[in-house]
Design goal:
The complex is a heterodimer of chains A (420) and B (358).
Chain A lengths: L1 H21 L2 E7 L5 H17 L3 E7 L2 H13 L6 E5 L3 H6 L3 E2 L16 E4 L2 E5 L6 E6 H7 L12 H14 L4 E4 L8 H13 L19 H15 L9 H6 L6 E7 L3 H7 L3 E4 L10 E3 L2 E6 L5 H11 L2 H11 L6 H5 L11 H10 E3 L6 H16 L4 H18 L8
Parallel strand pairs in A: 1-2, 8-9, 11-13
Antiparallel strand pairs in A: 3-12, 4-12, 5-6, 6-12, 7-9, 7-10
Helix pairs in contact in A: 2-12, 7-8, 7-15, 15-16
Chain B lengths: L3 H5 L1 H28 L18 H7 L1 E6 L23 H4 L12 E7 L5 E6 L2 H32 L6 H13 L2 H11 L6 H9 L16 H27 L2 H10 L3 H12 L1 H16 L3 H6 L11 H11 L3 H25 L5
Antiparallel strand pairs in B: 1-3, 2-3
Helix pairs in contact in B: 2-15, 5-9, 5-12, 6-9, 9-12, 12-15, 14-15
The chains are: A alpha/beta (420), B mainly alpha (358).
Chain lengths: 420, 358
């Protein structure tokens, strides 16, 4: 009898709960981080807090493994089946916005005024996406290496010049203490190449595509500056400063095992490096003539074009932009918090924190990848060019071919002109 | 009046129905669509409707042209020499980039070149060097894999076609790589071929007491395709061994008994009884290996991604790269159609070569 009563009670409670939920309009949301428990915990916390904070909207999350996420969105869009809220890798956003997958956010720009530039997803003059974090790359080494090799420690105000960097690599190589002087991460094929290597090209004065018009790569990717970059890039491998094919295990553990003097790596690997060598330091990118540059923009949130409730979806994204959540993500998975106030709340990025330098690096040097729907193709073309040049292909011919392929693609897409 | 073919085959049609429907949906229909797409500029992701572009995709992929150049001469009229002591030729770039005198060469690249009488040199230029390299690599792969894999499989089949204790253990061992997913096999072989810690380099170093230097099998343009060919032969040889085995077991034992009574040698038995009895099996094995070899993709995708320096580009890998990676459905479709034509021609040729001679 008591059991019966308990059951009725439970049924009643369930009914009450569901009727309360009925009053809220459901917003569907897709996220790329399936399988990462820490990430899931934080994002679920934000959703729970948001659903409890107001009576109108109820966000429901569906997570995908990162490898399958972009394909799922493409398939969902072709089937007319996208969620209200989705997340997007920063450089892909213009493609999705142009293709009509996404619509501009209904978030007042003053709300994100203090954000780093990388996490702000602007395309065609409108804000389409906003990130809760950014990522940055630095030249990782140890203070003891610099001392032994007799090298000046570069600063944000006075980074190494190209010549100083060259001298540093030579000193490291000549010391004979390292397997290779420099680890640029050749093992990480894919988006790492344009993300990590195109900033060198930009520091030389070239680029993947001409950013004033976005309609040609001629001159940008095969001009004198780009050829200078290509020759420099090739010499790294030809002269034995770095390896053109790298074992993934060497990429993950090589620096921590003392195999490399310098490693071009992201903030996500910083804690492990510090654990291996407490005197690990993170240096700014060298300046090859047009300023030191590093890549910017990571995963960001946006609203799908077909959403019936863009106002609610934007409200959720705005809710997620609170400093405490930005700090949670940073503490949870080591990413760079996008605002100074949230950075102050984190263990690693607060003033004097072990990784605070990354916040300053991304603030000072970050340059987003080309903001064009054609970037998806351009990134792959650049990746192949960088790999071929590293493997010894003729620099000028390779860059010319890359330019032709990028231009043919732009032409095939009517110049990627915005449709709406 | 329905024809007898339709009526008497009612049950047959019913049974074939589901399979025929699925094949139609997922193979025939997409292929017909691909033919259509290959004449357009269809994209995977785009707000723009596709336009009809005629043969532009085919011209872009297969465009070839030649250019004969005389070496650079100095003021005295003598041929200039490069540092390596070969005649110096004008830079191709001056002809293939924005040269109003050679509009047809715009955007082309050198595929290969050869000396053509005197000091002149003829350059074969292609619109899409990568794709032509992919075709060439695929043909090399097929030409090596088809005979070697077929012969090895036959050898294994003959070895295990004996009544020995525990012969099933050997059959299982040879067949094992076929059952394991090709992606897993490719990943494992990537470790085997590793320069620093790969098993292959360790073995070679051990048997030669360190005389053989460690080779970066997949990272060296000269060894990458060979490494993939070797691994592919090993992986699928068991499958064809089983087909050969089934062929061997259809040969009547009485023929072998008769041969034994006649005092035929082992080689004579094979030459005049086994081999003729395997005729149809041989045709099947060759056709299947050839078609599978033309479809080379998974090993490339997992192990080399077409690199280094395009040494392992293949036709199907290019089709997937372009159609999906670079969102160029029309380009990927065009490659599929070209591949279809190639495979069809080769299969027809094989059929003609192996026809029953009356």
């Amino acid at each position: 009898m008591t059991q019966m009563k308990w059951l009725t009670g439970a049924a009643f409670a369930a009914a009450a709960l569901s009727s309360a939920a009925q009053a809220q309009t459901t917003l569907s949301m897709w996220y790329h981080g399936a399988g990462n428990e820490v990430e899931a915990k934080i994002i679920n916390q934000i959703i729970t807090d948001f659903n409890a904070s107001q009576p109108d909207w109820k966000v429901e999350l569906q997570s995908f493994p990162q490898a399958a996420y972009n394909d799922s969105v493409t398939a969902g869009a072709l089937a007319g089946n996208l969620p209200d809220i989705l997340d997007v890798d920063g450089p892909n956003m213009p493609n999705w916005a142009w293709a009509g997958y996404m619509q501009p956010l209904q978030i007042d720009e003053s709300k994100i005024a203090n954000f780093l530039p990388g996490p702000q997803g602007h395309y065609n003059g409108k804000l389409y996406s906003i990130g809760l974090w950014d990522a940055a790359v630095a030249l990782v080494t140890r203070q003891s290496y610099l001392d032994e090799l007799g090298l000046r420690k570069p600063t944000l105000e006075q980074p190494w010049t190209g010549d100083e960097f060259e001298a540093a690599l030579k000193a490291a190589k000549d010391s004979g203490k390292f397997k290779y002087a420099l680890d640029v991460g050749m093992a990480w094929t894919g988006e790492w190449y344009p993300y990590a290597f195109s900033p060198f090209l930009q520091s030389f004065g070239g680029d993947i595509v001409d950013r004033t018009s976005y309609t040609t790569a001629e001159g940008a990717l095969n001009g004198d500056a780009a050829i200078a970059w290509g020759n420099w890039w090739q010499h790294l491998f030809k002269d034995g400063y770095a390896q053109a094919t790298q074992d993934p295990a060497d990429r993950d553990n090589g620096f921590n095992a003392g195999e490399y003097a310098f490693s071009w790596n992201g903030n996500w690997a910083a804690l492990n490096a510090l654990k291996a060598f407490p005197d690990t330091i993170f240096l700014p990118s060298p300046d090859f003539g047009h300023g030191p540059k590093i890549g910017a923009a990571s995963w960001q949130f946006g609203v799908s074009a077909k959403s019936q409730h863009p106002d609610g979806a934007s409200k959720f994204i705005e809710f997620a932009l609170q400093d405490k959540y930005l700090a949670d993500f940073s503490n949870g998975i080591g990413l760079i918090p996008p605002t100074p106030t949230s950075a102050a709340m984190t263990d690693n990025y607060k003033a004097g924190g072990p990784m605070a330098v990354f916040y300053d690096l991304t603030k000072a040097q970050a340059l987003v990848r080309p903001v064009t729907p054609g970037y998806i193709v351009q990134a792959k073309v650049f990746e192949k060019a960088a790999a071929d040049i590293a493997n010894g292909a003729d620099v000028v011919t390779t860059l010319d071919a890359a330019v032709d392929e990028i231009n043919a693609d732009i032409e095939k897409n009517n110049g990627y002109a915005p449709v709406n | 009046m329905a024809s007898k073919f339709v009526l008497s085959n009612k049950t047959g049609w019913l049974m074939a129905g589901p399979a025929a429907f699925l094949i139609g949906c997922f193979i025939v229909l997409p292929f017909i669509l691909a033919i259509g797409f290959s004449f357009t500029n269809q994209r995977l992701v785009s707000p723009n409707a596709a336009d009809f572009t005629g043969l532009a995709n085919y011209r872009q992929l297969l465009g070839i042209s030649t250019l004969t150049l005389d070496p650079v001469k100095d003021d005295a009229g003598a041929v200039k020499m490069t540092a390596e002591g070969t005649p110096e030729y004008p830079s191709l770039r001056t002809y293939t980039r924005n040269n109003p005198d050679y509009p047809g060469l715009n955007g082309m690249r050198e595929w290969f070149s050869f000396g053509s009488g005197g000091d002149a040199r003829t350059y074969v230029l292609a619109r899409d060097v990568v794709f032509l390299t992919a075709i060439l690599n695929t043909f090399i792969f097929v030409i090596v894999v088809a005979p070697v894999q077929g012969a090895l499989a036959l050898g294994l089949a003959l070895l295990i076609n004996q009544k020995l204790r525990g012969i099933n253990v050997f059959r299982a061992i040879y067949f094992m790589p076929v059952v394991v997913s090709i992606v897993v096999v490719s990943l494992l072989w990537r470790f085997f071929y590793d320069q620093q810690s790969g098993v292959l380099n360790n073995i070679l170093g051990a048997v030669s007491f360190g005389a053989i230097p460690r080779v970066d099998w997949l990272g060296n343009p000269n060894t990458a395709l060979g490494a993939i060919i070797f691994m592919s032969i090993w992986q699928a040889v068991g499958f064809h061994m089983v087909i050969w085995l089934s062929g061997l077991q259809t040969i009547s034992p009485t023929l072998y008994e008769a041969a034994a009574i006649e005092g035929s040698s082992k080689w004579q038995t094979f030459r005049y009884i086994t081999w003729p009895g395997l005729r149809n099996t041989a045709v099947l094995v060759m056709v299947v290996i050839t078609m599978q070899a033309f479809g080379l993709f998974a090993q490339i995708d997992v192990m080399t991604k077409g690199g280094p320096l395009d040494a392992t580009q293949t036709i199907v890998f290019q089709a997937v790269q372009r159609g999906y990676g670079k969102q160029d459905i029309s380009g990927g479709s065009t490659i599929s159609v070209i591949l279809f034509v190639i495979v069809l021609s080769v299969s027809l040729l094989q059929r003609w070569l192996t026809r029953e001679k009356k």
